[in-house]
Amino acid sequence: MKDTNYILDRVSLPKLPLSFKILFTGYIISVGFGLLMAGVQIMMTHGMADGKVGLSLDDIVYSYYGNKEGTKLEAKLNGSMKMNAPDAERLELIKWARAGAPKDQYDAKIKAIVDKYCTICHVPGAPMGDFTKYENIKATAESDHGASFASLTRVSHIHLFGIGFIFFFVGAIFTLAEGIGCFWKAVIVLTPFFFLIIDILSWWLTKLSPAFAWLTIIGGIGYSVAAAIMLFTSLWQMWITPLRRKS
User: Fold this and answer.
1) Which one-letter DSSP state was computed for residue 81?
2) Taking a C-beta distance cutoff of 8 angstroms, is the pair 80, 48 a contact?
3) Rounded-to-integer distance, Cα 244 and Cα 247, Å
4) Global confidence as pTM
5) Alpha-helix runs per DSSP H in the chain
6) Does the chain have fewer CB atoms within 10 Å around its N or its C terminus?
């Protein structure tokens, strides 16, 4: 406690040199917009998994556990890929998938639709899959089992490393805030890491059982709120607090 007060008496957010304030502010604004764009990306991908606008429990279940009564191709065509092809062509692809993705229909009609609307992005080496080959697109027309364990492993470690680093630096800046007790400051700094782990863990649990889908929403809301508190508090104390003390 004494060590903390000693540091804050000399280095705190309101007392930082202008160069440090500008550096920290640039980072905070960039991270803030990054988190907003991440939210938009979630709404445009997972948020359309059930074919409806807005993130729901069904979206999370379909994304990770899957929709055993439908196919991944149909889920995408009714969700995040809905705007990428006219309704008539989307309906043809859905009917083809529901019929078991027969090769003769693919050669006669479906390949032309895929080449026109899908292979713009789904090319060899693309992370979202190569649709230039019948075998690859046929695989997406099978029963939807959600995210694979391989993809969950890849995305999990990327999120843990990347977002973990973001929260580390955001927390480091926030620790220089004044007027917040050591206990509550520690709680706030720890909170986003805790909910980040809950969020990642919920993906794996939902893959095994849809009953855990609500944990994903709790995790996302938890670390978003904690990050917002640290970001806005840091900006306020760097720029507004000094002005109020002068007035």
Assistant:
1) T
2) yes
3) 5
4) 0.77
5) 2-10, 18-44, 57-64, 72-78, 87-98, 103-105, 111-117, 134-140, 149-174, 182-208, 213-235, 241-246
6) C
